[in-house]
Each structure stands twice: as C-alpha cells, then as structure tokens.
Write a structure and sequence with these properties.
single chain; alpha+beta; Deoxyribonuclease I, Chain A; six-stranded mixed β-sheet; globular
C-alpha cells in the first residue's frame, strides 16, 4: 500500500497578502508542506509583472521535484496557468480545455509512476460563474476522473463552496479528503480571516484519505491544503 502526501495551493503568482511578490516565500511554504505531489494554480511563465520567471520551474528547482505546466491564458509575453510538482516520474500529461466562452479555464492531467503504480492526477482552477463551473465538472472533469481504471486524485481551486451543485456532484462520486481534517482551520479563502472552503482534494475509490490539514500562511490570498492518502 502506497502512502502519499498531496498538496494544493493557489499561489496568486507568488504575491502575498502584504502585496509583496516573493516566490521564495512561496517555495518555503511548499517546503514546509513536504508533499509528494503538489497542485499549483495561478502560476506565471515569462510574464512581465512577475519578472519573466518560469515560476513552476523555479519552485521545482527549489524543492528538488519534477514539474509540468499547463497554459490557460497567453499574453504577448508569457502565459498564466496551472502546474504540478512531483517527487516521482511524470510519464504522461494532458491539458484539457474546460467550457467557458469568456474566461479560459483548463484541467491539467498527469500520470505519475509511483513505485510501479500508475497514479492519475488532475489539477484545475474552475470558473467564477456557478452555471459554468457545473458544466466544467459535469461535462469534462468528472467524466475524466471516473474514466481512470486505477487510482486518481483531483484537486485545485474550485471557486465554489461545499453546498454548490458542482461540489456536491463531485462529493457524490468521489471522496472529499476534508473528511479527515485534523486541524483547527476549516476554510481556505481569503487567507486573512478565511470565510469559505473553495480549495479541494478529491480521490476515487482506489485511494483512501487518512489525514487532511489546512496550513496558515500569508504567502497568497488562499491557504494551502494537504491530504495524506493511501493508494489501495
């Protein structure tokens, strides 16, 4: 039985609640989380506002991890998107388009080889409108996750609380790792006085969560989450 620690963090381009852009601070938070696989949202690549840095690569270098990046929105210089860091080899990737005619969104998929076991992971950042998020979950994300014959994990910033139809649909078909929450914090946004839980890690039936924790940090406007998972 494989045991893993999975993390998800909307890093807000490395900008903290103090308004200071400090990717090294982001790296320090991720290091404290000590995760095997990390889902990152709001990551910049070669953008002027973030000093033309390949943020996923920089964080991966600091942590000694493999990395992939999936662009969501392109600019005249650089792009913005999602990233995945892994301590184990990443053997396959895909960047799925999610339905939204106005606000581009994607779901970044990776297949990771963990001591002979192939784990599928999905990292996403859902839209701002509730009806669009439901379409994204119903038409693309949930079918993708449920199509995996082996263990799979879905995480990210869903921009939706637990009582919304899209998150309820996921909870009906997958396991919300928050069920094993062991810390005092129950919400993830905003980082100062968090009032809502909008960041999630879900697993399919071939994974079992054993612990969950929301970490306090002012390095972004979201709080990072971790889940300890056993692959059955």
């Amino acid at each position: 039985m494989q045991k893993l620690r999975i993390a998800s963090y909307n890093i807000q381009h490395g900008k903290g609640m103090d308004g200071v852009l400090d990717l090294k601070r982001t790296s320090q938070v991720l290091s404290q989380m000590d995760a095997d696989v990390i889902f990152l949202q709001e990551v910049d690549m070669f953008r002027m506002p973030t000093h033309l840095v390949m943020q996923v690569q920089r964080l991966a270098f600091d942590l000694g991890m493999s990395w992939i990046y999936g662009s969501v929105r392109s600019y005249p210089i650089g792009s913005y998107g999602n990233g995945i860091l892994s301590r184990y080899p990443i053997v396959k990737i895909a960047n799925h388009i999610l339905p939204d005619a106005i606000d581009p969104r994607r779901c970044l998929q990776a297949e990771i080889m963990i001591k002979g076991t192939l784990l599928a992971v999905f990292n996403t950042h859902l839209g701002l409108k509730q009806d669009v998020r439901l379409q994204q979950v119903q038409n693309v994300i949930l079918p993708l996750v449920l199509s995996i014959p082996g263990p799979s994990i879905l995480g990210g910033d869903f921009n939706a609380t637990v009582n919304r139809p899209e998150t309820r649909l996921l909870a009906e078909n997958l396991t919300d790792t928050f069920c094993k929450n062991s810390g005092p914090q129950t919400n993830t946004f905003p980082a100062i006085k968090p009032a809502a839980r909008i960041d999630y890690i879900f697993t399919n039936h071939q994974c079992m969560p054993s612990n969950y924790f929301i970490m306090d940090s002012m390095a972004s406007d979201h709080l990072p989450i971790t889940a300890e998972i056993e692959i059955l």
